[in-house]
Write a structure and sequence with these properties.
Length: 389
């Protein structure tokens, strides 16, 4: 059967899968229903199924022919702690949880490819379909790698995609080298001395000190980092106080930090610590900094990105394929798979009407029209990568 016909036949099932997953979102490392759902589908299609990697991760393995080559394709499966406001009839049944990043769609696309690959058996080698938990919070990719993902399931290369409502529908956006940033978080606590709001001279006011720290942090990117090094320092939260007549004991400032270069990453941590501690000292107070390094930068490999580009041009036409001039400042734990194996991560545009809500918005919904495109592209990618030669 032609691939397009096979995917067309599978469309009602793919939409049903996607909407079922959408109605039943689960947070990272707690995707038990999702995981069982995926395992059941893969088993029915004849895959060898391994569950339990990173708690709720699933790997479906399919061999064909005698080839020794292998490929891994990853879909993320977790949802977000967002209360859905789409009003869809298949909206989240769990208040406060939502598939607001389209991982329901990523999972359905890969299950669609799973069916087409199994039915066509048009490849020579081994395919590992990697359903990864906890992309949004706990770094499920790193946990899977640490638990021996690529020792147990050797992959010559790995690939992943993400839908992107800011890019035109059906557009493949790729980039050799850095594509997503490293992300870190600093929690700064300013330790003051509380008291009556009418007697500030008897206190050490952590709000004034904290405000000064927030402003000083703005100088790091503009004054300490090279203009050509993409960097973000965002104060995302400032908690202090409760009433106008009370000076609180402390203030807490939460900072999100994005970078690509490891020396820049080190410099950012150094400057944030120095500013927090020295600014606090200048107010006669003390600041403590809890600095946590999170996901590393996602760096695409050249040969595999060239492979995706060539295939996407044949698949969708050259007008639907763009090389991103800049990386995105968001982050992605697929970084850890790309540190272990060559591969490429790319975006698939989903903007059709222009009214689409962005990722992580309570009104966001994955565009089901992407399902056949993603399923067919993954099928062709695996088949082309493992083509008989
Ligand atoms: Zn997300
Ligand atoms: Zn996502």
């Amino acid at each position: 059967m032609k691939l397009s016909a096979a995917i067309d036949n599978a469309m009602p099932e793919l939409v049903a899968i996607r909407r079922d997953l959408h109605a039943h979102p689960e947070l990272g490392l707690a995707e038990t229903r999702t995981s069982a759902f995926i395992a059941r589908h893969l088993e029915a299609l004849g895959y060898a199924v391994t569950t339990g990697l990173a708690k709720t991760g699933v790997v479906g393995t399919l061999r064909n022919g005698t080839g020794s080559r292998s490929i891994g394709i990853r879909a993320d499966i977790d949802a977000l702690p967002i209360h859905e406001e789409t009003g869809l009839d298949y909206a989240s049944k769990t208040p406060g949880l939502m598939h607001a990043c389209g991982h329901d769609g990523h999972t359905a696309m890969l299950l669609g490819a799973a069916r087409a690959l199994a039915e066509r058996r048009n490849f020579d080698g081994t395919i590992h379909l990697i359903f990864q938990p906890a992309e949004e919070n706990f770094g499920g990719a790193k946990i899977m790698v640490d638990e021996g993902l690529f020792d147990r399931f050797p992959c010559d290369a790995v690939f992943a995609l993400h839908n992107e409502p800011n890019l035109p529908f059906g557009q493949f956006a790729l980039r050799e080298g850095p594509i997503m940033a490293a992300v870190d978080e600093a929690r700064i606590t300013v330790h003051g001395r509380g008291g009556h709001g009418a007697e500030p001279q008897e206190t050490a006011d952590p709000i004034v000190c904290g405000a000064s720290i927030v402003m000083a942090l703005q100088t790091i990117v503009s004054r300490n980092i090279h203009p050509m090094d993409p960097t973000v320092v965002t104060v995302g939260a400032f908690h202090a106080g409760s009433a106008s007549n009370i000076i609180p004991e402390r203030a807490e400032i939460v900072v999100g930090i994005r970078s690509f270069d490891s020396a820049v990453r080190d410099a950012l941590e150094r400057r944030i610590r120095m500013i927090a501690e020295a600014q606090a000292a200048s107010f006669g107070m003390r600041a403590t900094v809890d600095y946590e390094r999170s996901y590393d930068a996602t760096i695409n490999h050249k040969a595999e990105t060239d492979f995706v580009r060539d295939l996407a041009i044949r698949f969708a036409g050259a007008d639907k394929v763009v090389d991103l001039g800049r990386p995105f400042m968001g982050s992605e734990d697929f970084a850890y798979m790309l540190k272990e194996r060559p591969g490429s991560y790319f975006f698939l545009g989903s903007r059709a009407t222009g009214d689409e809500k962005p990722l992580h918005h309570p009104g966001y919904n994955f565009n089901d029209d992407l399902l056949p495109i993603g399923a067919a592209f993954w099928t062709e990618l695996a088949e082309a990568y493992l083509a008989r030669r």
